[in-house]
Amino acid sequence: DTCRNFHCKRGKVCHADQQGKPHCLCQDPAACPPTKDYEHVCGTDNKTYDGTCQLFGTKCQLEGTKMGRQLHLDYMGSCKYIPPCTDYEVDQFPLRMRDWLKNILIQYYERDLNTSGILTEKQRNKVKKIYQNDKRLVAGDHPVELLLHDFEKNYHMYVYPVHWQFHQLDQHPVDRLLTHSELAPLRASLVPMEHCITRFFQECDADRDKLIALQEWCHCFGIKE
Predict the structure, then answer these.
(1) What molecular function terms (GO) are annotated for this protein (predicted)?
(2) Residues 6+ apart with CB under 8 A from 27
(3) Would the CATH topology of 12-76 be identical to that of 87-221?
(4) Domain locations along the chain
(5) What percentage of the chain carries pLDDT values higher than 70?
(6) Measuring CA to CA, which of 126, 131, 188, 224 is 20 to 30 A from 26?
(7) Which residues pair with residue 177 across a beta bridge?
(8) Burial per residue of 102-129, b for 16 or more beta-carbon CB atoms within 10 angstroms, e otherwise
């Protein structure tokens, strides 16, 4: 089977021609396997798709058109009303996001104590210091004032989680630039809970080139040059 190790991008499937040579063809959205309600996704066209297979198959069939270029995965779950993000909310967003990233790394560290392999040795050494210092703030929702005070007082605790998240997303390719597709795993899961995340990332792209460079990303989170 020449398609066994032949990779096609999302929305395409491999088919072998008469000579057995593999080719990538658009996935027929109607041929996608059935999905459960919780697997539905919302596209940037504000249309609910049965799953990512149907969404990316549709995008592939629209390849070369303006509609195809504009269609992306917006967020997980069926489309719903997402309230607009106010200026005040987007200003406070980095505070919550930094705290959330720090807490994720701490959870990974705690899990890694029992099941090694979640973090690399280098990551473990970095997070260990954050973990030991984090006991000042009790887990849970914190007022904006406390998050701001903690960031200013314990600035270096927050630098690594911001860098770590960037490099977790920067995978296809690893080039210190985040595309819409690379941001999607983070954005798509958070939009229903954090309605400011779309505007936040739009404003992170300071030069409007549809790419978020490491410097732009860090600037958005308040990390100094």
Answers:
(1) calcium ion binding; collagen binding; extracellular matrix binding
(2) 11, 12, 13, 53, 56, 57, 60
(3) no
(4) 12-76, 87-221
(5) 97
(6) 188
(7) 213
(8) bbebbebbeebeeeeeebeeebbebbee
Burial of 166-186, coded b for 16+ CB within 10 Å and e otherwise, reads: beebbeeeeeebbeeebbbeb
Summarize the chain as % helix, strand, coil (round to 5). 50, 10, 40
Specify the residue for token string 């070369």.
64
> What single letter denotes the amino acid at residue 218?
C
Domain 12-76 matching CATH 3.30.60.30: the answer reads: yes
CB neighbour list of residue 23: distance below 8 Å, 6 or more residues apart: 14, 15, 16, 17
Alpha carbons within 13 A on the beta-carbon side of 66: 0
Read off φ and ψ for residue 15, nearest 5 degrees: -135, 140
What residue ranges in the chain does DSSP mark as E strands?
12-16, 22-26, 41-43, 48-49, 73-76, 177-178, 212-213
pLDDT at residue 225 is higher than 80: yes
Query: Which letter does DSSP use for residue 22 in this model?
Result: E
Q: What is the model's pTM? A: 0.77
pLDDT band at 140 (very low <50, low <70, confident <90, very high): low
CB 72 within 8 A of CB 184: yes
Q: What is 87-221's CATH number, 3.90.420.10, 3.40.50.2000, 2.40.420.20, 1.10.238.10?
A: 1.10.238.10
Residue 97 confidence (pLDDT) above 90:
yes
